[in-house]
Amino acid sequence: MKTKQILSLFAFLVILFINANSxxxxxxxxxxxxxxxxxxxxxxxxxxxxxxxxxxxxxxxGDIAGSNGGIRRFFGLDNAADIxxxxxxxxxxxxxxxxARAKGAGPQQQLYELAGRYRILQQRENDPSHPVxxxxxxxxxxxxxxxxxxxxxDNSYDDLGERMSNVFQVIVSRKIGxxxxxxxxxxxxxxxxxxxxxxxxxxxxxxxxxPVGGRVNVLLDYFYPFxxxxxxxxxxxxxxxxFYNPLGVGFEVLTAGHIFRLNFTNATEIxxxxxxxxxxxxxxxxxxxxxxTISRKFTVWRSR
Length: 304
Known about the structure:
Elements: H1 3-28, E1 52-63, E2 80-92, E3 95-102, E4 111-121, E5 133-143, H2 160-163, E6 164-176, E7 179-190, E8 200-213, E9 216-225, H3 229-239, E10 247-254, E11 258-265, H4 272-278, E12 289-299
Antiparallel strand pairs: 1-2, 1-12, 2-3, 3-4, 4-5, 5-6, 6-7, 7-8, 8-9, 9-10, 10-11, 11-12
């Protein structure tokens, strides 16, 4: 082969390599839709990363206004409605595991959570084959507080199976410009519930994030439980309870090492296993509370 042909072939291969490498970088650049693994009430499609540990504390105070709020309870500061402490470990680039403990705000308390998340697709810049991020989430929650000796109460369980509940979600997000959108189709299953309640329930959640300047973002999330009319009416007749859809509004502040969120929501409890079927407080009646979330990430080992 002549020298000119060899040089031409070499130049052609170099151009192909550079072009392929450039496209590979564009295709492989992931899009971060959210700053953390939760908004206010909703889980997100973000993962911790292999070898990383996320320490997360969420604290919900009492009602700001309404019959249980106001100045006499210092706008909710006198009460701790619910508290959750969680450790999430990145066991792989696409898999996280969570261990958490929540106080609980209803009859079921001392809640232990074991959860996992697996990412099956991640949105990438300039890659039509990866337009969204998709994460599968599942948890198991066990209530360790004593059972109620009276029948047909929210905590009248007899065995371990009745103390357990599970949530399954397919979380789908997409970032468009600076705005992030998300859907959280959810299936909830409970080992025990009151006779006129629903053991299994579907809900559709959603979340929104957009920046307002600097390192501050606004967060919104909402869940619509598909509860039967018969269960709604039964609770009104038997317990004088009316259910409302959980709505959360928050402000997120990003610092060098922490993520701090100021949350406002009508969901008393923090875990989906509880606030999806049991939100009985309303924004319209002033029955919303404020709280905060602090998240700190650590590197346990460095992946190679």
